[in-house]
Design a protein that fits this description.
Radius of gyration: 31 Å
Helix content: 10-25%
Distance between the termini: 98 Å
Strand content: 35-45%
Structural class: mainly beta
Largest sheet: 6 strands, antiparallel
Number of helices: 4
Protein backbone atom coordinates (compact mmCIF):
# COMPACT_ATOMS: atom_id res chain seq x y z
CA UNK A 1 0.00 0.00 0.00
CA UNK A 2 2.10 2.87 -1.26
CA UNK A 3 1.70 6.46 -0.10
CA UNK A 4 2.01 9.17 -2.68
CA UNK A 5 4.43 12.03 -2.07
CA UNK A 6 1.75 14.50 -1.01
CA UNK A 7 0.25 12.09 1.52
CA UNK A 8 3.68 11.22 2.90
CA UNK A 9 4.47 14.91 3.26
CA UNK A 10 1.24 15.56 5.16
CA UNK A 11 1.75 12.63 7.54
CA UNK A 12 5.44 13.39 8.04
CA UNK A 13 4.62 17.03 8.83
CA UNK A 14 1.96 16.08 11.32
CA UNK A 15 4.09 13.55 13.13
CA UNK A 16 7.17 15.75 13.04
CA UNK A 17 5.12 18.37 14.84
CA UNK A 18 4.09 15.97 17.56
CA UNK A 19 7.49 14.36 18.15
CA UNK A 20 8.85 17.33 20.09
CA UNK A 21 10.90 16.96 23.26
CA UNK A 22 7.69 17.52 25.19
CA UNK A 23 5.94 14.73 23.31
CA UNK A 24 8.84 12.34 23.77
CA UNK A 25 8.72 12.94 27.50
CA UNK A 26 5.11 11.78 27.43
CA UNK A 27 5.89 8.42 25.86
CA UNK A 28 6.30 6.63 29.18
CA UNK A 29 3.67 3.92 29.68
CA UNK A 30 1.96 3.82 33.08
CA UNK A 31 2.63 0.71 35.19
CA UNK A 32 0.90 -2.41 33.95
CA UNK A 33 0.28 -1.15 30.39
CA UNK A 34 1.44 -3.65 27.81
CA UNK A 35 4.02 -3.24 25.08
CA UNK A 36 3.18 -4.75 21.70
CA UNK A 37 5.70 -7.54 21.16
CA UNK A 38 7.02 -8.47 17.70
CA UNK A 39 4.59 -10.84 16.05
CA UNK A 40 1.73 -10.05 18.44
CA UNK A 41 -1.53 -9.01 16.84
CA UNK A 42 -3.11 -7.11 19.71
CA UNK A 43 -2.09 -5.12 22.72
CA UNK A 44 -4.45 -5.69 25.62
CA UNK A 45 -4.01 -2.23 27.00
CA UNK A 46 -7.68 -1.45 27.46
CA UNK A 47 -9.63 1.35 25.86
CA UNK A 48 -11.25 4.42 27.33
CA UNK A 49 -14.39 4.25 29.41
CA UNK A 50 -15.74 7.20 27.49
CA UNK A 51 -15.65 7.65 23.72
CA UNK A 52 -17.21 10.58 22.00
CA UNK A 53 -18.93 11.57 25.22
CA UNK A 54 -20.69 8.19 25.59
CA UNK A 55 -20.05 5.46 28.11
CA UNK A 56 -18.61 2.30 26.57
CA UNK A 57 -16.96 -0.93 27.65
CA UNK A 58 -13.16 -0.87 27.48
CA UNK A 59 -11.73 -2.32 24.28
CA UNK A 60 -8.37 -3.60 23.18
CA UNK A 61 -5.99 -2.11 20.64
CA UNK A 62 -4.49 -3.63 17.50
CA UNK A 63 -2.25 -2.37 14.74
CA UNK A 64 -3.49 -1.59 11.26
CA UNK A 65 -1.62 -2.28 8.03
CA UNK A 66 1.79 -0.66 7.61
CA UNK A 67 2.18 2.18 5.14
CA UNK A 68 5.77 2.35 3.81
CA UNK A 69 7.55 5.68 3.99
CA UNK A 70 10.57 7.01 2.16
CA UNK A 71 12.19 8.51 5.26
CA UNK A 72 14.79 6.33 7.03
CA UNK A 73 14.72 4.97 10.56
CA UNK A 74 17.12 6.49 13.03
CA UNK A 75 19.31 3.42 13.03
CA UNK A 76 22.81 2.65 11.84
CA UNK A 77 22.79 1.57 9.13
CA UNK A 78 19.61 3.30 7.99
CA UNK A 79 16.55 1.18 7.25
CA UNK A 80 13.25 1.89 5.50
CA UNK A 81 10.45 3.02 7.76
CA UNK A 82 6.70 2.42 8.00
CA UNK A 83 3.80 4.36 9.39
CA UNK A 84 1.16 2.38 11.24
CA UNK A 85 -2.20 3.42 12.68
CA UNK A 86 -3.78 2.02 15.82
CA UNK A 87 -7.21 0.39 15.50
CA UNK A 88 -9.82 -0.79 17.97
CA UNK A 89 -9.66 -4.57 18.28
CA UNK A 90 -12.79 -4.91 20.39
CA UNK A 91 -15.61 -2.89 21.85
CA UNK A 92 -18.18 -0.67 20.10
CA UNK A 93 -15.57 0.80 17.71
CA UNK A 94 -13.87 -2.48 16.79
CA UNK A 95 -12.24 -2.40 13.36
CA UNK A 96 -11.98 1.38 13.16
CA UNK A 97 -8.96 3.60 13.55
CA UNK A 98 -8.32 5.12 16.96
CA UNK A 99 -8.81 8.89 16.98
CA UNK A 100 -8.59 11.58 19.62
CA UNK A 101 -12.34 12.12 19.28
CA UNK A 102 -12.92 8.60 20.62
CA UNK A 103 -11.79 9.83 24.02
CA UNK A 104 -13.71 13.09 24.18
CA UNK A 105 -12.06 16.50 24.41
CA UNK A 106 -8.66 17.45 25.71
CA UNK A 107 -6.43 15.31 23.47
CA UNK A 108 -4.37 17.00 20.77
CA UNK A 109 -1.24 16.54 18.69
CA UNK A 110 1.43 14.91 20.84
CA UNK A 111 -0.95 13.47 23.43
CA UNK A 112 -0.39 9.84 24.34
CA UNK A 113 -3.25 7.45 23.69
CA UNK A 114 -4.94 6.80 27.07
CA UNK A 115 -3.93 3.32 28.29
CA UNK A 116 -2.34 2.71 24.91
CA UNK A 117 1.07 1.43 23.86
CA UNK A 118 3.80 3.71 25.12
CA UNK A 119 5.22 4.68 21.73
CA UNK A 120 1.93 5.87 20.22
CA UNK A 121 0.63 9.44 20.31
CA UNK A 122 -1.99 11.37 18.41
CA UNK A 123 -0.89 13.21 15.28
CA UNK A 124 -2.13 16.53 13.92
CA UNK A 125 -4.86 14.74 11.95
CA UNK A 126 -6.25 13.14 15.11
CA UNK A 127 -5.20 9.57 14.37
CA UNK A 128 -2.86 7.53 16.57
CA UNK A 129 0.36 6.60 14.77
CA UNK A 130 3.71 5.01 15.40
CA UNK A 131 6.87 4.73 13.33
CA UNK A 132 7.96 1.17 12.56
CA UNK A 133 11.42 0.28 11.26
CA UNK A 134 11.84 -2.54 8.76
CA UNK A 135 12.79 -5.74 10.52
CA UNK A 136 16.26 -6.27 9.06
CA UNK A 137 19.15 -4.15 7.85
CA UNK A 138 19.47 -4.08 4.07
CA UNK A 139 22.99 -2.68 4.04
CA UNK A 140 24.75 -6.04 3.74
CA UNK A 141 22.46 -7.10 0.90
CA UNK A 142 23.19 -3.93 -1.04
CA UNK A 143 26.94 -4.29 -0.52
CA UNK A 144 26.85 -7.88 -1.70
CA UNK A 145 25.16 -6.87 -4.95
CA UNK A 146 27.45 -3.88 -5.47
CA UNK A 147 30.66 -5.89 -5.01
CA UNK A 148 29.49 -8.35 -7.67
CA UNK A 149 29.47 -5.44 -10.11
CA UNK A 150 32.89 -4.00 -9.21
CA UNK A 151 35.89 -4.28 -11.50
CA UNK A 152 38.81 -6.02 -9.82
CA UNK A 153 41.83 -4.01 -8.76
CA UNK A 154 44.77 -4.32 -11.16
CA UNK A 155 48.18 -2.72 -11.59
CA UNK A 156 48.32 -0.96 -14.96
CA UNK A 157 51.51 0.84 -15.94
CA UNK A 158 53.77 2.00 -18.71
CA UNK A 159 56.44 0.71 -19.35
CA UNK A 160 54.41 -2.46 -19.42
CA UNK A 161 57.11 -5.03 -18.59
CA UNK A 162 60.16 -3.46 -16.96
CA UNK A 163 60.87 0.05 -15.80
CA UNK A 164 64.03 2.05 -16.25
CA UNK A 165 65.79 4.28 -13.80
CA UNK A 166 65.45 7.92 -14.73
CA UNK A 167 62.42 7.18 -16.92
CA UNK A 168 58.91 8.05 -15.79
CA UNK A 169 56.60 5.15 -14.96
CA UNK A 170 52.95 5.99 -15.61
CA UNK A 171 50.17 4.29 -13.66
CA UNK A 172 46.37 4.37 -13.86
CA UNK A 173 43.34 2.17 -13.22
CA UNK A 174 42.40 0.42 -16.42
CA UNK A 175 38.81 -0.40 -15.49
CA UNK A 176 35.61 1.22 -14.30
CA UNK A 177 36.14 2.90 -10.91
CA UNK A 178 32.38 3.11 -10.47
CA UNK A 179 29.34 0.94 -10.08
CA UNK A 180 26.68 2.92 -11.86
CA UNK A 181 23.20 3.07 -10.28
CA UNK A 182 21.40 -0.26 -10.36
CA UNK A 183 18.06 -1.37 -8.95
CA UNK A 184 17.10 -4.48 -7.02
CA UNK A 185 14.08 -5.49 -4.98
CA UNK A 186 14.17 -6.28 -1.29
CA UNK A 187 11.40 -7.79 0.83
CA UNK A 188 11.00 -7.08 4.52
CA UNK A 189 10.64 -10.52 6.15
CA UNK A 190 8.33 -9.17 8.87
CA UNK A 191 5.74 -7.52 6.65
CA UNK A 192 6.29 -9.09 3.24
CA UNK A 193 6.41 -5.64 1.71
CA UNK A 194 8.79 -5.26 -1.24
CA UNK A 195 10.90 -2.16 -1.67
CA UNK A 196 12.73 -0.97 -4.77
CA UNK A 197 16.37 -0.29 -3.92
CA UNK A 198 18.75 1.78 -6.01
CA UNK A 199 22.44 1.73 -5.17
CA UNK A 200 25.76 2.91 -6.59
CA UNK A 201 29.41 2.80 -5.54
CA UNK A 202 32.76 4.25 -6.49
CA UNK A 203 36.45 4.07 -5.71
CA UNK A 204 36.84 6.79 -3.11
CA UNK A 205 40.58 6.22 -2.53
CA UNK A 206 42.98 4.90 -5.18
CA UNK A 207 46.50 4.25 -3.93
CA UNK A 208 49.58 3.40 -5.98
CA UNK A 209 52.49 2.18 -3.86
CA UNK A 210 55.60 1.97 -6.05
CA UNK A 211 57.63 -0.21 -3.69
CA UNK A 212 60.46 2.21 -3.06
CA UNK A 213 58.65 4.24 -0.41
CA UNK A 214 56.78 6.53 -2.79
CA UNK A 215 52.99 6.45 -2.58
CA UNK A 216 50.45 8.31 -4.68
CA UNK A 217 46.80 8.66 -3.60
CA UNK A 218 43.82 9.98 -5.53
CA UNK A 219 40.45 10.53 -3.85
CA UNK A 220 36.98 10.98 -5.28
CA UNK A 221 33.79 12.26 -3.68
CA UNK A 222 31.41 10.63 -6.13
CA UNK A 223 30.89 8.81 -9.40
CA UNK A 224 32.00 11.63 -11.70
CA UNK A 225 35.15 12.40 -9.72
CA UNK A 226 36.12 8.73 -9.64
CA UNK A 227 35.97 8.56 -13.42
CA UNK A 228 38.11 11.69 -13.66
CA UNK A 229 40.87 10.75 -11.22
CA UNK A 230 41.33 7.06 -12.14
CA UNK A 231 43.45 8.11 -15.10
CA UNK A 232 43.89 6.73 -18.60
CA UNK A 233 46.71 5.46 -20.78
CA UNK A 234 47.13 8.97 -22.16
CA UNK A 235 46.48 10.82 -18.90
CA UNK A 236 47.91 8.74 -16.04
CA UNK A 237 46.72 9.15 -12.48
CA UNK A 238 50.21 8.68 -11.01
CA UNK A 239 53.69 9.36 -12.37
CA UNK A 240 56.86 8.11 -10.68
CA UNK A 241 60.57 8.03 -11.48
CA UNK A 242 62.74 5.30 -9.98
CA UNK A 243 66.25 6.34 -8.97
CA UNK A 244 67.66 2.85 -8.33
CA UNK A 245 67.21 -0.50 -9.96
CA UNK A 246 65.04 -3.00 -8.14
CA UNK A 247 68.03 -5.30 -7.68
CA UNK A 248 70.17 -2.52 -6.17
CA UNK A 249 67.26 -1.73 -3.82
CA UNK A 250 67.26 -5.32 -2.57
CA UNK A 251 64.29 -6.57 -4.56
CA UNK A 252 65.65 -9.32 -6.75
CA UNK A 253 62.25 -10.16 -8.18
CA UNK A 254 61.25 -6.53 -8.66
CA UNK A 255 59.79 -3.69 -6.63
CA UNK A 256 56.55 -4.67 -4.79
CA UNK A 257 54.29 -2.42 -6.85
CA UNK A 258 50.76 -2.33 -5.38
CA UNK A 259 47.44 -0.77 -6.30
CA UNK A 260 44.72 -0.53 -3.67
CA UNK A 261 41.16 0.71 -4.10
CA UNK A 262 38.73 1.54 -1.33
CA UNK A 263 35.10 1.50 -2.44
CA UNK A 264 32.25 3.36 -0.79
CA UNK A 265 28.62 3.59 -1.84
CA UNK A 266 25.16 4.98 -1.30
CA UNK A 267 21.65 3.68 -1.73
CA UNK A 268 18.03 4.78 -1.50
CA UNK A 269 14.65 3.06 -1.55
CA UNK A 270 11.21 3.54 -2.97
CA UNK A 271 7.85 2.33 -1.69
CA UNK A 272 6.07 2.84 -5.01
CA UNK A 273 8.39 1.34 -7.59
CA UNK A 274 10.49 4.46 -8.14
CA UNK A 275 7.82 7.14 -8.05
CA UNK A 276 9.11 8.54 -4.78
CA UNK A 277 12.59 7.99 -3.36
CA UNK A 278 14.16 8.36 0.05
CA UNK A 279 17.18 10.60 0.44
CA UNK A 280 20.41 8.71 -0.31
CA UNK A 281 22.12 7.15 2.69
CA UNK A 282 25.72 5.90 2.82
CA UNK A 283 26.55 2.22 2.88
CA UNK A 284 28.10 1.25 6.16
CA UNK A 285 31.86 0.89 6.07
CA UNK A 286 33.80 0.33 2.88
CA UNK A 287 35.20 -2.40 0.66
CA UNK A 288 38.92 -2.58 -0.18
CA UNK A 289 40.47 -4.48 -3.08
CA UNK A 290 44.22 -4.78 -3.68
CA UNK A 291 46.46 -6.03 -6.48
CA UNK A 292 50.27 -6.34 -6.46
CA UNK A 293 53.05 -7.31 -8.85
CA UNK A 294 56.84 -7.56 -8.81
CA UNK A 295 58.06 -4.72 -11.03
CA UNK A 296 61.61 -4.97 -12.27
CA UNK A 297 63.40 -1.70 -12.81
CA UNK A 298 66.69 -1.79 -14.69
CA UNK A 299 69.33 0.70 -15.71
CA UNK A 300 70.66 1.32 -19.20
CA UNK A 301 74.31 2.15 -19.43
CA UNK A 302 75.87 3.47 -22.58
CA UNK A 303 79.27 2.27 -23.68
CA UNK A 304 81.79 3.81 -26.04
CA UNK A 305 82.73 1.49 -28.86
CA UNK A 306 85.76 2.03 -31.07
CA UNK A 307 86.15 0.56 -34.52
CA UNK A 308 89.26 -0.05 -36.49
CA UNK A 309 89.86 1.98 -39.54
Amino acid sequence: MAIRGSVIGLLAFGIACLLSSHAIAMLQAPPGICELLPGAETCNGGGSEQRGGKEADPGTFAWGAVEPLTRPCRTEPARPQYLQRLVWASGPSAGTYVTADDFGGGYGSGSRVPNGPAEVVFAADGYAYRWVCSSRDIDADVWAEATERMDDAAVTKNPVVSGLTGLETWAWFDGDPTVQPFQVTWTDPATGFTWTLEAWAWMRDMTWSFGDGEVHVESARGLDEALAVAGTVDNPAAVHTYRATSADAGFDDGYPFEFSATWVGQYRWSADGGGTWSAPVPMTGSYTDTAAIAYQVMQIRSALVTTDG
